[in-house]
């Protein structure tokens, strides 16, 4: 029998969900050319200085030795070295006499009792005029020592500090300067050097001594006699090209 419309079951239509599958397709476009990295630029160490002649004209440049002029300054070591140099250069010549060193006082000034005076055993007492001194200064010889390696490291730190501050000037043919003060003063003015000045040469040069002896706060020395105190107490350093070469050659043996 045909079923009634009310009893007819509604047909359920099933919806099928379609999944879209997307495949990653590699692009066939040509790859971009990789950018070539520029070569690393060498950082300037700041050790290149100008070279002057004895007339104050620039003749070229030179590079200071990194082992001597390019190290990181050790401030604590420099402070320790300065303390030792100051202490050793100080003189303690003042000397006062104690009651055991002054003259006199062999007998008791007066008897112990019956005079009404205070008791006195000797006129060498510090309470008496002409007696000994209680806490006066005494002569003493104070000498502090610094190990050799620490001396070398302190000198390297001092020279490196001067190089970083631009206070080192190199002079070519410095030993050939005429023994005239006017020439030396003109040279210092042209290269803008202010006192005090330390001049470093390879040997004891008579012309440089005569040319600079009348200039205040100017000293001369050789590379073998340098120390940290001498370098730091001078504002500027003039070094001959020959002395600079000798420092570079003996750098590892003398300083390192």
Average pLDDT over all residues: 81
Main sheet? 6 strands, mixed
How many individual helices? 8
Order of helices and strands: EEHHHEHEHEHEHH
**DSSP strand tally:** 6
Beta content comes to 5-15%
Structure commentary:
With about 260 residues, this protein is α/β, with parallel strands linked by helices. It has a domain at about 50-90 and about 145-255: Ribosomal Protein L4, Chain: A, CATH 3.40.1370.10. It is about 30% helix and about 10% strand. It is built from 8 helices and 6 strands; from the N terminus they run ββαααβαβαβαβαα. A 6-stranded mixed beta sheet has the order 2-1-3-6-4-5. Strand 1 (about 50) and strand 2 form a beta hairpin. It starts with about 45 loop residues before the first strand and ends with a helix. Mean pLDDT is about 80; it is low at about 1-25 and about 30-45.
Essential attributes:
single chain; 256 residues; alpha/beta; Ribosomal Protein L4, Chain: A; 6-stranded mixed β-sheet; 8 helices; 28% helix; disordered N terminus
SSE layout:
Layout: E1 48-52, E2 58-63, H1 66-69, H2 75-89, H3 148-164, E3 168-171, H4 181-190, E4 197-200, H5 206-212, E5 218-221, H6 228-232, E6 236-240, H7 241-249, H8 251-255
Parallel strand pairs: 1-3, 3-6, 4-5, 4-6
Antiparallel strand pairs: 1-2
Helix pairs in contact: 2-3, 4-5
């Amino acid at each position: 029998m045909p079923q009634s419309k009310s009893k007819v079951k509604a047909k359920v239509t099933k919806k099928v969900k379609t999944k879209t599958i997307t495949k990653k397709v590699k692009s066939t476009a040509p790859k971009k050319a990789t950018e070539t990295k520029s070569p690393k630029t060498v950082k300037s160490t700041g050790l290149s200085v100008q070279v002057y002649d004895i007339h104050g004209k620039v003749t070229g440049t030179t590079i200071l030795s990194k082992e001597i002029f390019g190290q990181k300054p050790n401030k604590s070591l420099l402070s320790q070295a300065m303390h030792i140099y100051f202490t050793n250069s100080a003189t303690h010549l003042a000397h006062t006499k104690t009651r055991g060193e002054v003259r006199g006082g062999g007998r008791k000034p007066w008897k112990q009792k019956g005079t009404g005076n205070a008791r006195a055993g000797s006129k060498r007492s510090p309470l008496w005029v002409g007696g000994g001194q209680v806490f006066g200064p005494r002569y003493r010889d104070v000498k502090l020592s610094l190990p050799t390696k620490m001396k070398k490291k302190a000198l390297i730190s001092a020279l490196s500090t001067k190089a970083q501050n631009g206070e080192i000037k190199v002079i070519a043919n410095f030993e050939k300067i005429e023994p005239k003060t006017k020439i030396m003063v003109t040279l210092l003015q042209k290269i803008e050097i202010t006192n005090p000045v330390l001049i470093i040469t390879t040997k004891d040069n008579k012309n440089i001594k005569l040319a600079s002896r009348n200039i205040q706060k100017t000293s001369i020395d050789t590379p073998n006699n340098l120390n940290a105190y001498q370098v730091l107490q001078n504002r500027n350093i003039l070094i001959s090209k020959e002395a600079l070469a000798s420092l570079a050659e003996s750098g590892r043996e003398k300083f390192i």
